[in-house]
Amino acid sequence: MENWIKVFETEAQVRAEIVKGVLEEHGIQAVVLNKKETVYKIFGTYHVLVQRDDSISASTIVQNEITF
Length: 68
What we know:
globular; alpha+beta; Alpha-Beta Plaits
């Protein structure tokens, strides 16, 4: 995972999936990493990761094109 960069973090899985979908529509491969603790799923977040080479483009898309 060393070539993957976090471009978005949220407590809501649906928001992470939306960000992933928007990035993929722009041709950027993205994955959602579940960082919630395993027992009660109260603490933790979801991270959206992209390849290092796509991180600047992906960050720009997240900042300028995605609102919740």
